[in-house]
Write a structure and sequence with these properties.
This protein has 14 helices and 10 strands. The chain is α/β, with parallel strands linked by helices and 320 residues long. It folds into 2 domains: 222 residues, 3-Layer(aba) Sandwich (Rossmann fold), CATH 3.40.50; 76 residues, 3-Layer(aba) Sandwich (Rossmann fold). The strands form 2 sheets. A 6-stranded mixed beta sheet has the order 1-2-10-7-8-9, with helices on both faces. A 4-stranded parallel beta sheet has the order 5-4-3-6, sandwiched between helices. Helix 6 links the parallel strand 4 and strand 5. The relative contact order is 0.16. Its cofactor is pyridoxal 5'-phosphate. Keywords: Lyase, Pyridoxal phosphate.
Length: 320
């Protein structure tokens, strides 16, 4: 495989100026409540409201002129599809997005508003991925995996570069990040290991969706039964042969699982302390820190707020 660290640094330049730096902001209220120095990495403030815009912008940039002729096809539970549609529109690349029928309606509407063609699959997310990949192969259209793609991972890794640069000499003790298919943590973790090796990478999963965690425990990708979760952005199985699996084995230092109640509590905490309404996947990362706060007392930690794409109704129902 190519040098991922070098590819991340190349992506760090390539995605500008389309993708701005997101802030790394200290939360005074959360720091006081958790008795540690909490920095919030605010990727929910990026275009389309999620970190996924990093990887999609990088991938479409490397495809270049060929993609403008053929278009691209991808699969998503929402945020990646929105990101691909957003990046494609700016590059003049037609985008087709396969989504499971269980995807959040608001995210599907957003994908269509951004100009992509939507194909709804009445099956789990992994089947939407398979059908999208088959469609691409049959029609000679590049398939963009939401996580199992070198350039997608490199793009997501730019968040780790930003965190290291923004922290500067004030080296962080840990970064808490949610894990789904592993694209975010693979890129972020690779960048952190390269630029801030003292910083531990803490992967956090919803108890209801632990596909990559179970793979790491088994030493291979395995079938895992999933339950509905507030963290819909991390839901879905990990496809066989995913390049994220060996990277996750290398870069995740600590593993945490959190309940749906803990996720909702974390989402509410961000709203109360920092006045941001974030989606479940962002709540997962903070919930991991809240659960393990005793281990990080007096330490400097960052929490990745990866997205904000949740309806008001669902948010209110979740947090009460």
């Amino acid at each position: 495989m190519q040098d991922l660290s070098a590819a991340i640094m190349a992506a760090h330049a390539a995605i500008r100026p389309h993708v701005p730096f997101s802030p790394l902001e200290r939360s005074g209220a959360l720091s006081a409540a958790l008795d540690c120095d909490v920095r919030l990495k605010c990727d929910h403030l990026l275009p389309i409201g999620a970190f996924k815009v990093r990887g999609a912008t990088n991938k479409i940039s490397v495809l270049g002129e060929a993609a403008r002729k053929t278009g691209v096809v991808t699969a998503s539970t929402g945020n990646h599809g929105m990101a691909a549609a957003w990046a494609g529109a700016r590059a003049g690349v037609p985008v087709t997005v396969y989504v499971p029928a269980t995807a959040v309606r608001g995210k599907l509407d957003a994908i269509e508003r951004l100009g992509a063609r939507l194909v709804i699959v009445d099956a789990p997310p992994i089947e939407a991925e398979r059908q999208a990949r088959r469609y691409g192969a049959e029609h000679g259209i590049p398939y963009i995996s939401p996580y199992n793609d070198f350039h997608i991972i490199a793009g997501q890794g730019t968040i780790g570069v930003e965190i290291a640069e923004q922290a500067g000499a004030d080296v962080l003790d840990a970064v808490f990040v949610c894990v789904g298919g592993g694209g975010l943590v693979s890129g972020l973790g690779t960048a952190i290991k390269h630029l801030s090796p003292r910083t531990r990478v803490v992967g956090v999963w919803p108890e209801n969706s632990q596909c990559m965690l179970r793979a790491l425990e088994a030493g291979r990708i395995v079938d895992v039964e999933e339950q509905p979760t507030l963290s819909d952005a991390t839901a879905g199985a990990v496809e066989e042969g995913s390049i994220t699996f060996p990277i996750c084995q290398q870069v995740i230092d600590d593993r945490v699982t959190v309940s749906e109640t803990e996720i909702a509590k974390a989402m509410r905490a961000v709203a109360e302390t920092d006045h941001w309404m974030v989606e479940g996947a962002a709540g997962v990362a903070l919930a991991g820190l809240m659960q393990r706060k005793d281990e990080w007392r007096g330490k400097k930690v960052a929490v990745v707020l990866c997205g904000r794409n949740i309806s008001v109704e669902k948010f209110v129902e979740a947090v009460g």
